[in-house]
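Researcher: Please predict.
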Amino acid sequence: MRRMSGVVASALLATVGCGPVDAGSAFAEQFEPYLASNEAVETFTVYGDNTLPWTGGADVDVTMVAGLSDEELVEEVWAITHHEVEHQIGYSLVIRFPSVAGDGAPATTSLSLSVDEPAPDDGRAREQIAERVRLGRDVAALGRGPTTFEVGSWDATLTTDADPVATATALDRLIDETGDEWSQHLTVASGPAILPDGSVEFAAGETGGALAELRTVLDAAAALGPVESWTADVTHGQPTTLNVVYATRPADLVPLTTLAAENDVALTVV
């Protein structure tokens, strides 16, 4: 068991009627031994945040061991979310677990939960966790080569050796089919085996035809010369922003900029 501890702020506690003055640190110090003793946990970090006296939060990041079935994984995650310590507070939980990419390559995927207090054991918590596990596996399966799917409280990033636009299109479709109200901002980035280096940001369910239009402009940009890297941001109701970096800037960009405008893409070329 590799143990990593990251307690933020002072460890000095002052126990009063409303609990320790450094609530985040108190929670972290009590929650860490539980994770350290859990055989299903490979590594973990617990960062306690002492926002105000007697008020705090925490970020808990857990990597599960390999070899767990989906049913075992759901039960282990459920147990973590339902474990209470004396100085319990609400915290953000990220669970990482091994998976498999679409071509059989190793992948790491994750899920994010907000734990306010242990939920009642009525099946709803397990169902929510099971849905997140299934989605994490399905997202990993979109990848090619070594793949990671990092999910945080506000954003999520899929990095894989596959075309970012095609993968983003498939990811957007997958989330739409699940009916999940996905709140995180999504990024699909190319892995090291994909050239040029590229990434696209978007909000699930709000891309419309923007990804297809982006593909058209990117193909035209590549036809003008070697592209070193590109980044794109698809925002609903606004033109897609696209930044393209060439190894050597093409002499005539008028046809490309005209095509970009026709496809509602705000283009910047370097």
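Model: The chain has six helices and 13 strands.
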